[in-house]
Specification:
The protein is an all-alpha fold and about 210 residues long. It has a domain of about 110 residues. The protein is about 60% helix and about 0% strand. The protein contains 5 helices and no strands. Helix 1 runs antiparallel to helix 2, helix 2 packs antiparallel against helix 3 and helix 3 packs antiparallel against helix 4. The mean pLDDT is about 75.
């Protein structure tokens, strides 16, 4: 009897280790610069400590439109007032240049009146600008009072010019241009009248009546 006495007669002969795939060749590193940093950390920022401030009520369009009308009216009045003051100054200059030919008392009175009215209109234009700025930045009642007073002064000036021009043109010979002057006066009256309606009625009035 030959061989290993402890061997299993039914077992197959050992043929060696199982076949495996050959090892893969080493891959070159990816092209480019390595990425530096500290991964895993959240972005640096201050945590929110205070609660968000709630948005306030929006200013109604009537108030904004009234302020825009005040600015437009102020520009128109400022330009016309400068012309009135310059015209009165030209009349005074002509009188001073030739004192021998004294003008009628009415002409001298009109020159003085034009200067005074021009200065008053320039002051009223400044009041319009102040009132428009106030209503755009504040809901206080005094802002409304200033703008209403500025518009009311403009209405009074328009009434003054309508009456004064009617008296002056009635003494002119030939065709009577009263209608043209009155139409010109209505152009200056439209803005203040509409502005008063915007801030004294509807949403414009409620904006200043609401609790602040």
């Amino acid at each position: 009897m030959t061989g290993d006495p402890w061997a299993d007669p039914g077992a197959q002969a050992y043929s060696g280790p199982p076949a495996t795939d050959p090892p893969s060749a080493p891959q070159p590193p990816p092209y480019g610069y390595p990425q530096y940093g500290y991964p895993g950390y959240p972005p640096y920022a201050y945590p929110a400590v205070w609660p968000p401030v709630p948005a306030g009520p929006r200013r109604p369009g009537q108030v904004i439109a009234a302020a825009v009308l005040a600015f437009v009216q102020a520009a128109m009045v400022m330009v016309t007032s400068i012309y009135v003051v310059l015209l009165a100054s030209v009349v005074d200059f002509a009188v001073d240049a030739d004192p021998t030919s004294a003008p009628p008392a009415e002409v001298s009175g009109l020159s003085t009146e034009g200067t005074v009215v021009g200065i008053v209109q320039i002051a009223s234009a400044v009041l319009l600008i102040v009132g428009g700025v106030l209503v755009l930045n504040s809901r206080r009642r005094r802002s409304l009072v200033v703008l209403v007073a500025a518009f009311a002064v403009q209405v009074l000036l328009c009434v003054y010019w309508a009456v004064r021009l009617s008296v002056l043109t009635s003494d002119l010979p030939g065709s009577n241009p009263t209608g043209a002057f009155l139409a010109f006066t209505l152009v200056f009256l439209a803005g203040p009248a509409v502005g008063l309606g915007l801030v004294l009625l509807g949403g414009g009035r409620r904006w200043f009546d609401a609790p602040r």
